[in-house]
């Protein structure tokens, strides 16, 4: 099954908004998909959660306001670069969903490698003569 891009209605449901600007939401979703594809291509089936998160962040706070005061209440939000962006967690989630990003081992030894030593063996090279204390 291939990745299916979320809809504007799904973004509205994700954000808990009864009404949503469909054209703007579609544009943000399209751009969020493009950003996600810069990390993993093709996108995994479950990448819609990351796409909705990225598009939702840009829809709710397009100017990336970091501090807001309304009456006696003040709120500070984490600062972003503005517009759409992928967080470190978004990138890690995409890689994990695609089956990448785990620990792995690379063995550089060729399959035809011989386990016998390739250096001179002591008895052949040195013979029986060693300095006192070394034998």
- Please identify the oligomeric state: single chain
How many strands in all? 2
Rg of Cα set: 29 Å
* Beta-strand residue fraction: 5-15%
Structural classification: mainly alpha
Weakly predicted, low-confidence segments: none
Q: What fraction, in percent, of the residue positions are helical?
A: 25-40%
Instruction: Count helical runs.
Output: 5
Please write the string of helix (H) and strand (E) elements.
HHHEEHH
What separation lies between the terminal Cα atoms? 69 Å
Shape: elongated
Largest sheet: 2 strands, antiparallel
Give the neighbour order of strands across the main sheet.
1-2
Arithmetic mean of pLDDT: 82
Description of the structure:
By secondary structure, this protein is mainly alpha-helical. Helices cover 39% and strands 6% of the residues. It has five helices and two strands. The protein has helices at residues 8-15, 22-37, 48-60, 88-97, 122-126, and strands at 67-70, 73-76. Strands 1-2 form a two-stranded antiparallel ribbon. The longest helix has 16 residues, at 22-37. It is elongated, with a radius of gyration of 29 Å.
Report a brief summary of the structure:
This protein is mainly α.
């Amino acid at each position: 099954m291939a990745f299916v891009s979320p809809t504007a209605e799904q973004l509205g449901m994700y954000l808990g908004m009864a009404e949503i600007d469909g054209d703007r939401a579609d544009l943000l979703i399209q751009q969020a998909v493009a950003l996600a594809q810069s990390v993993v291509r093709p996108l995994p089936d479950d990448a819609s959660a990351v796409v909705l998160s990225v598009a939702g962040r840009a829809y709710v706070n397009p100017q990336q306001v970091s501090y807001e005061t309304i009456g006696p209440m003040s709120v500070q939000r984490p600062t972003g670069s503005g517009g759409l962006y992928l967080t470190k967690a978004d990138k890690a989630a995409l890689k994990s969903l695609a089956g990448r990003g785990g620990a792995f081992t690379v063995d550089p030894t060729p399959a035809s490698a011989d386990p016998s030593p390739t250096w001179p063996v002591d008895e052949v090279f040195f013979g029986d003569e060693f300095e006192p204390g070394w034998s």
